[in-house]
Amino acid sequence: MPEERDAERHEPVVLSVVIPMFNEEEALPALVTRLRPVLTELGVPHEVVAVDDGSGDRTAELLAAFRLGWPELRVVALRRNSGHQAALTAGLDRARGAYVVSLDADLQDPPEKIPDMLALARAQGLDIVYGVRADRSSDSGFKRWSAGVYYRLMRRLAGPSVPAQAGDFRLLSRAAVDALKALPDQQRVYRLLVPWLGFPSGQVAYERAPRTAGRTKYPLGRMIRLAVDSVTGFSAAPLRIATWLGAGAFVVCLALLVYTLTAFALGRTVPGWTSLFTGIVFIGAVQLICVGLLGEYVGRIYTAVQNRPTYFVRHDTAAPSPGGGAGAEDPKEPRVPVPRA
Q1: What radius of gyration do the chain's Cα atoms show?
Q2: For the chain, how are helix, strand and coil distributed in percent, rounded to 5?
């Protein structure tokens, strides 16, 4: 068995499937049941790069158990929870395939569409194939509304190249993956970073299914954080908004100044306290908004200057890629944990 696995490591990999995972022990059996037959029927050399993003449940143990009978399964374990986009970065950095598909473990994005993506990319010579959610009826009304607002805003700020209703289910060519790895971005949002490349792309539509098991890894707080990272990472529009707010506040101040001087000339200075109070509150609010927006951009600059790794790898069950990507890796591979009964 070890000799067979070593031989497979040297065989050119056509397709890599990168799956970030965080506490997915409930969804993992269903994922393997559906994904493995799809890849087997493709009939091309492939690997499945499961990135364990510091899970606290039995995700690591289940991956080790599945790997005993599935040699194409490769496990990259991170030392701590680094976030979905960082775990996706770790998988892309280590994927060896000529084509790389990113897929979530909750099966809301169907793995059965992977053959269609690969066929489309090969037939038309595409570097990117987006999985587009044509039907989101399984999501809640608030989820559909917030997603619609997010994509409309991103298309307005980052340009029309951002496909509507396209998440992190996509296929990338080796050229696209290498281009992403060469970018210096620390806080990556691949939903905007991939379209920014401008490489030839296509789309495969699908119906979004309910989550198989477990809880969502993108609650409201993380959705807001993703929106903030998206806006500040790909547009200077908030700074321009701050400028316009400052200009508007200046105009209001001039109007209040005229009103104050008029009231003083007419001897009605006492009643002016309402306008004065309103003006002070308004200017203070505008200043806080502007300082907050400026601080968001300064924080991103500070993070970029620090240039700290976005993830740390505990072990990789396959030989690490040359260069090691953007994460810091422990050269010692620990023993694989034995799954509990």
Answers
A1: 25
A2: 50, 15, 35
